[in-house]
Prior knowledge:
Strand order of the largest sheet: 1-2-8-5-3
Shape: globular
Bound molecules: protoporphyrin IX containing FE
Strand content: 5-15%
Order of helices and strands: HHHEEHEHHHHHEHHHHHHHHEEEEHHEE
CATH architecture: Orthogonal Bundle
Mean pLDDT: 92
Amino acid sequence: MATHAQPEADALSPQALFAPETLSSPFAFYRQMHARGPVAAAPGTPFAFVWSYDLCSEATGRVAEFSNAFGDALAGARATDPEVKAILDTGWPTVDTLLTADPPRHTRFRKLVNLAFSMKRVDAMEDEIRAIATLLLDAMLPAPGETGEAEFVRDFAVPLPVMVIARQIGMADLPVEQVKHWSDAFTDRLGQMISREREIECARAVVAFQHHVKTLIDARRAEPTDDILSDLVHARVEGERPLDEAEIMSILQQLMVAGNETTTSTLAGGLLLLIENPQEQAKLRADPSKIANAVEEMLRLESPTAGMWRMVKQDAEIGGMAVKAGTLLHLRYAAANRDPARYPDPDRFDVERANARTHLAFGRGIHMCIGNMLSRKELLVAFQEILRRMDSIAVAPGAELVWPPNMLLRGLRALPITFRAVG
Ligand code: HEM
């Protein structure tokens, strides 16, 4: 009957992904989409969707047709809201740098920013990351042998990446809440599911951040320091113009958005996976060398950057689906990472999964996450320390686990836990 068929069709239309309840709990929806095919048009909307591993991967390689310059398309009506614009005008222009730039612009930025994200720098940060993890666990844990409780997101998963990046961009002396407040403002603007009031608040936060960064840039121009911001200020690549102030500010915004919430989500989601899968957790306790692969499996299942946009530049075809110029192609990395054709029993958390590291949680191709080595290091060190110093970890009785709806980023809001301190 038509009355019955209608809700059914709505629930299975690809744009049903953006319903808040689906965004919060999308895995059954992904299974349905995989069963229907690797791609899906959404007639009557500007969107088209790519679900499969192979085609998400393919799309990231077709940069001439599928552009990352989607910033303006998503800014929509609010970009012209006079009040928001007036606030933003008191700061520096937001420049499309890494994530939202195409070659050759992107190539220049990537070359310059790569200098600040070398493996050498990330390796040199390991001790600092461990010191921060230790500091946070010291504050969270009672004496060895005693039981304790904590809100893991607030007490560990938020401050760890914020403190690591804050130190690297010269903001270590600011309260964590201040840095997080700025970071949240950028994230909320990107997610776009916010009220006009929040948009105005975010614009104010962006401008305050920019003015603060200006003083940090000036200080590093006068005297270089041993951190990522100084590397950006002094980055020189033969034949390329150095980064200017507005460019550096835009890059820092991206580092904070891309680096903080995503790593927080993987820490929280990863711990929940360990709690829910005690046998897998036991394997890591028996052989901590398996933690590195477990981190890959956490990234695969959590996929905190659940999807990313591509703007179709010219009429094209992908996976047999015609996409017109101007279509916003949504690459759903989180669905690709649970593609049964790539990962047998895809919803299972298997710390020994042989191909876990092939996941698309960091994307692929020229826009592949520039911070992937850094966040992998943070996650590795964090779970080494957590498993070394805590056991009997459980979700606190009565805790309600909430994943706020966001089109691009998915992560637990809070994770109340109980545990026993062991070290
Ligand atoms: C678990 C943590 C992280 C996840 C899941 C993640 C995910 C991603 C993904 C999926 C992309 C590619 C977007 C696309 O396809 O267009 C990306 C790009 C990017 N990420 Fe990450 N990221 C993480 C951590 C970080 C960290 C720690 C930083 C830096 C501090 C960072 C900085 C960036 C930047 C700047 C880009 C844009 C690169 C470009 O377009 O060339 N991310 N990230």
